[in-house]
Predict the structure.
Amino acid sequence: MPLFATFYSYKGGVGRTLALANVAWLLANHPTEPARVLVIDFDLGAPGLHRVLKMPRKATSLGLIDYVLKFTATATVPLVQDYIHRTAYSRIDIIPAGRLDNKYQSRLNSLNWTALYENAYGYELIEALKTSISQLPADYDYVLVDSLTGFSDVGGICVKQIPDSLILLFRLNQQNLDGIDTVFKSASRKKGLMITPVISPAWPFIDQASDIWLEKSRHIFGKLRLNQISFDSGLSFGERIIANLSERLTLIPKVISDYQHLAVHLRNQNASDPLTLWENLRFRTSSLTTEGIADLQLRLLEKRPNNLAYWQYLETAVPRARRSRRAGSSNTSAYGKLMSFIDDQCKSGNKLALLGRASLALSLPDSVQKALDDLSAALKNDAKFYEARFLRARIYLSEEENGSALSDLLVCFAQLSTKDTRRREVASEIASIALELFDGPTAFKFAQIALDGGVSTFEFLRCYVKASYLDGKYAQGIEVAERLLRLAPRDELTGLHYTQLLAAAGRLDDAKAILEKMRREINIQDAANLAEAYLAVDPRTTIEILRSTEVDVQPPVRRMLRQLAWLLLHHERPIEMSEEEFKENVSTVTSGTWNTFEVVSLIITKRRKAELSDAAYTLAAKVINEGTGQKLPT
């Protein structure tokens, strides 16, 4: 049901039509939730709304007068859509005053509103008009009525019968205040009518005289807030939409700000406006029951079933609503109706509903496969559905299906424009996953994209260093490693990565010097990392460290590092070593207690630099696989 709002003034010259037109434009052009607006020109004696909204001029365009006369002639309610026309502004339609030909005045004079109401069911006609508008496929959110001035039968219809919200515009003078006082008292008797007093135009200065008139206004309206539309001399040269100028102006004129305030005020009055529902759902839930939250979410999705943000909010709203369920009430509760609506939308193929249901499934036990099924169905409907593919990648990642996660994220990245702020974060994610898969070229490529895009967290920079090492981009990795060490000079892991890069770049003496210093200072509990780092610099020292009785290294790690050190020392004749020598007392490293990235990267690096033969690489791969379960790339 749309909100019906009447703009009324007792006297002319207060900018009523202009205010209505600008508020209509603001409602219809909201940046995130543009409304559908219908305006009705009830100022039958001096119609002008069609000009302000630039309705195409057609003498044959039917309007309100023609609608009423058709009813009086046929005693049947006409189809309202025959009287609705487009304006020059998208999402704003109009029912003009009537067909503006040379017989317009005579048709206007033939209307007897008093007789219509007394003898011909005029009240029922207006109610039928409102009902017909509410049921139109256009699904209007607002119907704004431009009323004529003064006291009249038509004015009574516009002020009392039609509106849910009444905007009373008036100047600060005695005639205006006397007239608006009478209308306000009469309208106040309508139960539930929301009344908004607006001083128009309001002068941009305060003096003693204006303060007196303001006090008179406050006396009329009591506790109601006095709104205003500021005076702007530029509007003296023709009525026009000016709200659309705000994006092009450095300083927004006060009058436009006043129109904006009035538009926001109307939206706050409209409980069924999707924007109002959305803001209530996000910011005003503290006073709601959890069932009330589910009801808000349901109404929002029913109004806007194709809005991504509203479906994504399900994972926030539904868990709270889920807790409010009572046994046996799930089908009739707001929660139950919401879940049924979601299922119906999924059955109809709504990709957003499938995304929403998938996100909800992740909060339930043993529902990962259901979430994946819904996301795959959404992508079947739309292969370019970024949000579904990204969420599926996150699920794959959580399930340690890194290859599938990487494939989805690469597709996501390809969909993003170079200006999209998500691009650098996705690139960073791709680099991290590619590292896990020991895909050096992919890891470095996307780490570089993320770095160029401005990602600079400590963990990401460490990822960049590792990607540089894995892909053989040693100079770039050394530069970033030195940057990290300036930030955290005592970060041992970064120091170890730094030595690996130096060694790979041929700077063995520099790498040895750093490792010797670390060997003197390092905590004995971290000696296994140091022993591992020496594999790239001096494998003999690796063996020496591991032989130390003071070093507490779990046996599987000790054996693996010792075997790799021996292999690197004898890589020129690895075929002489028997398989039994590498299987001696082999046991697998406990999961989660050892990161194999460094040793795997080292072996890959040695192979890339032709420092390991095929046979030696095969044996190294066997050592690592038997010790950790990690398979090296073939």
Observations:
- Residues 127 and 392 are 50 Å apart (CA to CA).
- The first strand starts at residue 3 and ends at 9.
- The radius of gyration is 37 Å.
